[in-house]
Amino acid sequence: MSNAFKKFIRAVTLVDLFKGLALTGSVWVRSIITPRQVLVTRPYPEVKRPAFPNFKGHHGFLLNEDGSLKCVGCGICAGVCPAKAIRVYTEEGKDHEKVVVGYEIDAFRCIYCGFCQEACPKDAIVLTRLYELADYDNRACYRWKMDRLVEVGKKRPLFRDEVNL
Amino acid sequence: MTAQVLDMVKFLWAHSVLQIVIVFACTLMMVPILTWVERKVIGHMQVRLGPMRVGPHGILQGIADGVKLLLKENIVPSGADKRIFVLAPILSLVPAMIAFSVIPFDHWFYITDINIAVLYVLAISSVGTYGIILAGWSSNSKYALLGALRSAAQVISYELAIGLSLVGPLMMAGTLSMVGITKAQAEHWFLLPQIVGFFIYFVAMLAETNRSPFDLPEAETELVAGFHVEYSGMRFAFFFIAEYANMVLVSSMATVMFLGGWNPPFQMFEVMHVLQKVPGIFWFFGKVAFLLFCFLWVRATFPRFRYDQLMRLGWKVLIPMALGNILVTGIVLALLK
Ligand code: SF4
Ligand code: SF4
Question: Do A39 and B48 touch (CB under 8 A)?
């Protein structure tokens, strides 16, 4: 059979059109029988994609067992940060010790390098795998204050658990 | 009291008022269901989930959309021709609805049976095109105008193909009344002898309702939304309902002309007569539902035609095929006589 004839037959019998219909049709039938295997969409807020083990997301602030801050206000993290994203506010306490009164990370400046976590002598600041950074308050989205960091540090699975420790 | 109510119902039924109300309500109810089914089926074919949020598996999505459209503002562009702009959606919805008046859903359930029913449907559905053209013209927007022009050209080309493809069944039935045509198919559907006609009708009905792969008048990627780009709120909903009502209408037409209307399948075999136990209206709606599914199936499968391809298919393939089909049908009918 010549090529032209084959081509003609294909065009007249509409084989290719029916092949296409068979493909979509079979996907549809399978999606009715076994939807979980066929349909790949994740219904996002209900089913969250787990972050990769090395993912560096929202910072968390860790506490000691008695609930006090691990951070001693040394400021090394702020010094090492290549993006100058960290501010540590300290005051002199009653017994002339250093008290951390404020800690702030500018999420717009941060490049999520993880140097702060590496440098911290007290393991107080860590990067977690939290990637949902939205908030109802737009300032809170990019200026992470102490309370927010502590909250995140309490509940999120941590990055360094698997990699460093 | 109950006797009076019964009398009232009988009176309304005899004067077709009840039928009109039922058909009208059902057609409008079909729209939210169809949109949900469409999004769900196409989603599944493309391995997506489709709507999932409103109600279980998104089943109330259509109603949510309807409420949204009701509450939205009706915007009239400042350069628009206001009166025509308001008239256009009505002109496209009304013909789609009134064409249902001659569709026989069962041997006891139709609004009216006129002896030129097929011509009536063809004539009325052409009027619907005016809605599209006027909408495109009055919006004073280039996208809308281009969409409307495409639509006019497309509908004129494919109206011919649709009309010619219906001539075959008409010759076989020997009548233009929809009820008569359905009754002529009590034993054999016209599907097999008129398979070419059915194919032409199927392609042309996709084009006639501006559905994919012939959705050039509203090609999103080229024309934003085509002729209804300037419409919002309920006026947009009118076009939307008209499109879906037209889909149901052409599917009903195909069911009556080729798939035997309310007749169950395989009636040439004695054993299959048990199928007559199922009310005809279920057969009718089953066939319509299958054809509507085909609309979605085709939409999920094929890419859009280019404009010149569309015209070439219409004039150079479908219309000659339809003419040949008429010729062959005529010769065979004459020989069988
Ligand atoms: S992750 Fe890097 S850029 Fe971000 S605060 Fe820590 S040191 Fe700075
Ligand atoms: S977080 Fe760590 S490095 Fe930063 S100030 Fe506190 S103790 Fe020092």
Answer: yes
Sequence letter at residue A31: S
Range among A24-28, B78-82, B207-211 rated most confident:
A24-28
Task: Give the pLDDT mean for B255-281.
Answer: 78
Of residues B234, B74, B230, the one with CA closest to residue B146 = B230
> Residue A98 pairs with which residues in a beta bridge?
A92
A 31-90 → B contacts, CB under 8 A: 31-32, 35, 38-41, 43
Ranked by mean pLDDT, which of A39-53, B58-72, B218-232 comes out on top?
Answer: B58-72
Residue-wise over A93-126: b if at least 16 C-beta within 10 A, else e?
A: eeeeeeebeebbbeeeebeeebbbbeebeeebbb
- Residue B45 has its nearest CB partner, among A24, A35, A40, at A24
Rounded to whole angstroms, the Cα distance separating B246 from B159 reads 14
The answer to whether residue A48 scores a pLDDT higher than 70 is yes
- Taking CB atoms and an 8 Å cutoff, what residues of chain B touch A43? 49, 52
User: How far is A20 from chain B, CA to nearest CA, in Å?
Assistant: 6
* Rounded-to-5 percentages of helix, strand, coil across chain A: 40, 15, 45
Give per-residue pLDDT as tens, A100-141.
888 899 988 999 888 888 888 888 888 888 888 888 888 888
Sheet of A86-92: strand order equals A86-92, A98-106, A143-144
**Which of the residues A15, A18, A24 would you substitute to probe the B interface, choosing the one with the greatest number of B C-beta atoms within 10 Å?**
A24
pTM of the model as a whole: 0.79
Q: What are the backbone dihedrals phi and psi of residue A40, each rounded to the nearest 5 degrees, phi first? A: -95, -10
Spatial CB neighbours of A5, under 8 Å, sequence gap ≥ 6: none
pLDDT at B219: 65
Domain ranges of chain B: 1-71, 72-336
